[in-house]
Amino acid sequence: MAQKVLRNVTHCIFDMDGLLLDTERIYEEVTRQIAGSYGRQYTEATRFRLMGTTDQRSAEIAIDECQLPLTVGEYLKRYHKLCHERMQNVPLLKGAERLLRHLHANKVPFALATSSGAEMVELKTRKHRELFDLFNHRVCGSSDKEVKNGKPAPDIFLIAADRFADKPIPANCLVFEDSPNGVTAGESAGMQVVMVPDPRLAPERCSHATQILRSLEEFKPELFGLPPFKN
């Protein structure tokens, strides 16, 4: 596969789950528990299809593909209850804090664009509030009225870009994602996308990313015209 040309950027937009916070494994456990309570399987293929989508869309996919005898409302009530029990002390993933603090110290504007709702974001980031307060702003796809269509649609990233004070064009924004749906959303928005995928994802599911890393520790800001790390 040909090496992709990397363009200089001025702003960064981050997904949260599975990229900054180690939450995807919790979502997987919760969905598998719900499916298992009805004797249903929660397959890897289904998991990757719902990754990065809004709560509503995730519920629809899980109910349909796992053949669950639940309405979306019933599923989400149970799902949120189980998530609340497990999301109190979510750890950061490798390289996340270093990168965020580096961007902030160098006055590179960055925003959060997550499919989670605002209430769930508060819960998951409680242990790391000071770090997440460094973000210029947050767009929470499951509760933000402006986000009409969730990932893989580009809405959330276009809205995140528009809410920066200087309103950068999409080409000047660099997206960080972990899911194929998120990468498609960023690409559709006209942005470059750095992907840190689940190692179980097939390579062809990641091929549309601008750059693929094993963790944020591997990110080299200078490749995108951003200030390099000093150590």
From TrEMBL:
Entry similarity comment: Belongs to the HAD-like hydrolase superfamily. CbbY/CbbZ/Gph/YieH family.
Pfam families registered for this protein in UniProt: Hydrolase
Keyword Hydrolase: yes
GO MF annotation terms: metal ion binding; pseudouridine 5'-phosphatase activity
Keywords recorded for this protein, A-Z: Hydrolase, Magnesium, Metal-binding
Catalytic activity: psi-UMP + H2O = pseudouridine + phosphate
Species per Swiss-Prot/TrEMBL record: Drosophila rubida
Documented EC number(s): 3.1.3.96
Enzyme class, broadest EC rank: hydrolase
Taxonomic superkingdom: Eukaryota
Name by which UniProt lists this protein: pseudouridine 5'-phosphatase
Family matches, as InterPro entries: HAD-like_sf, HAD-SF_hydro_IA, HAD_sf, PGP-like_dom2
Cofactors that this protein relies on: Mg(2+)
